[in-house]
Each structure stands twice: as structure tokens, then as C-alpha cells.
Amino acid sequence: MLIKESKSSLLNRVFSLEPFIGNTPLFPLNGTFSKPGVTIYAKLEWYQLGNSVKARPAFNIIKEAVASGKLDEHIHLLDASSGNTGVAYGAIGAALGLQVTLALPANASNQKKNALKAHGVNIIETSRFEGTDGAQEYALELYQNNPELYYYADQYSNENNWKAHYYSTGREIFDQTRGKITHFVAGLGTTGTFTGTARRLKENNPNIEVISLQPDFAMHALEGWKHLETAKVPKIYDPILADRNLEVSTEEAYALIKEVALKDGLLLSPSSAANLVGAIRVAKELDSGVVVTVFPDHGSNYPELVI
């Protein structure tokens, strides 16, 4: 009885956080890009608990794990993260009284590490040279050696990652544009944002073109993005979903940050700027259309940026 009551109490706390996940504003980029008949919008994903797009999958993964009885106050949520998902886990975990252990590459930003520490996350630093692939391998081995201590969330393979975007991001974008969206553009990391959002939009209107983005070079500096030709491909990735795939360089993304700050009043992170690079490239091809992308997080999370 006490176990059931504890689970019910935790699940109620989970549901109480739901209003603070998703429902982010759609912002028009009128200053940075201007072309008659064509508009670019971006979802400002830092307007939610955890301050990034990763709040959506982190919350959905936690909610489903608690509902299924796989996660409670006595078990650590374990995963690998390069930063934003980890911070989202930490923020949501702290709000729910859950313990979080994360494996992350040693070269993750100090800003992210400090945020994780503030939320009480147990950090295990892995090789900076192996990136998130190495962190995933470490987390999996830790779980396999101690299955009774951990719930291994495995965001790169967890179906609740992309489903979070299917049920929220995709629906929100379609509703916010009143169904007028013609193109969706987003980068690939865990691939959850693109996979879930694109699937929902295609179901709403098969004529919406969905374009995925990835770095043009394996040794890029776009935190959270994957160069799929050289990295471990997430299990949730669907290679036939995108209508087109475009490459974006780190240099293009960084060059755009200052322009957006001056012309649209937004301080973007490198990954947000990279998404906008792709969106602008698509928009320039059009005579008319509504292009939507996602700004995963805010530039204030990257104090090392020089603009």
C-alpha cells in the first residue's frame, strides 16, 4: 500500500509540472530575413522548465518511467548527455525529488556543468575525445553492472524522446501557424526533435516539406549536433523521414549570431543559429511559404561566445 501511495504521489507531482513543459512561443525572424511572401518562424524553446528544447523529451521520459514503476525516489535516473538534456533532467529531477546521474564528455561547457551541480546532479566525466558516443558507452556499462541502482533513460534509443515532439512540438507548430506551415527545418542530435515533429506535421499535411540539418564536418563545434556519417546513429532516427538533408558549417552558424542579436533582438546559441542558417537557405529558394525551425536554447547558456 505504501509503495502504491508513494508512486501515486510522485506521479501527481509529475503531472503538476506538465504546464511548464512546452507551449513555447513562435517568433517571426523579420529583421534577419525579409522576402515578400516568405516568412521564417522559430520556436523559442528556452521558455520552459530546464531552459531548452530538451525539457520536452526529458519530461516525457521521466513521466513514462514513473508511470511504469521503473523510476522512483530510490532509483537514480541515468543517462549520457552533452549538456541540455542533462540540465533538463536535473531541473525536472530536482522539482520531483528524483536522483540523477549523468555521464557527459569532459569538454562540456562549465556553464552546463555548473547548472547540473546546482540541481544536485551526480556528474561522471568521460573522455573529451569520444564525445557523447563515449558517454553513452560508459552509462550503459554502469547500468549493466548495477541494474538495481539505476533507471537507464537512454535518450538516443528511447521512443519517448521523439514522441514528446510528436505530441507537443509538431502539434504546437501546426496550430500556431494555423496550418499554414510549408517547411520544417531542424538539426540532428539525438534526432528526437526532427523525428517527432516531422512525423506529426506530415500526418497533418503530407505536403509539408521536412528538411534535416547536420554539421558539414565531423570535428564541428555545434554542441548537441551529430555528424551521422562518423558518429553513432541514434536508434530512434528514421533515415527516410526527411525530404532533404542539408549541411551547415560551424562558421556559418557563429557568423549569424551577431546579426540576429542586432536585427531581431535574440541572443542565439550556436545550435539555434545553425538551425536558422538552414531555414534561411530553404526560405531563399521559395517564392512563397512559411518556414519553421526550432531555437533549442539561448545564447546566455554560452558565456564563451564572442560576438
General description of the model:
Strand 4, helix 4 and strand 5 (122-126) form a beta-alpha-beta unit. Helix 1 runs antiparallel to helix 2 and helix 6 packs across helix 7 (192-204). The mean pLDDT is 93. It is built from nine helices and ten strands. By secondary structure, it is of the alpha/beta class. The chain has two domains: 2-48 and 164-301, 3-Layer(aba) Sandwich (Rossmann fold), CATH 3.40.50.1100; 55-152, Rossmann fold. It has helices spanning 2-17, 55-67, 84-96, 110-118, 131-145, 159-176, 192-204, 250-263, 270-284, and strands at 26-28, 38-44, 76-80, 99-105, 122-126, 150-152, 183-187, 209-215, 244-248, 289-295. It is 41% helix and 18% strand. The longest helix is centred in the middle third of the chain and has 18 residues, at 159-176. The strands form two sheets. A six-stranded mixed β-sheet has the order 1-2-10-7-8-9. It has a four-stranded parallel β-sheet with strand order 5-4-3-6.
Stretches where pLDDT is under 50 for at least 5 consecutive residues are none
State the order of secondary-structure elements, H for helix, E for strand.
HEEHEHEHEHEHEHEEHHE
Sum up the overall morphology in one term. globular
How many strands appear in the DSSP assignment? 10
Query: What structural category do the secondary elements indicate?
Result: alpha/beta
* CATH topology descriptor of the largest domain: Rossmann fold
Strand order of the biggest β-sheet: 1-2-10-7-8-9
Please give the alpha-carbon distance between the first and last residues.
58 Å
The level 1 CATH classification of the largest domain is Alpha Beta
Could you tell me the radius of gyration in angstroms? 19 Å
Total helical segments: 9
**Average pLDDT:** 93
- How much β-strand is present in the residues? 15-25%
Kindly give the count of domains: 2
Main beta sheet strand tally, sense and closure: 6 strands, mixed
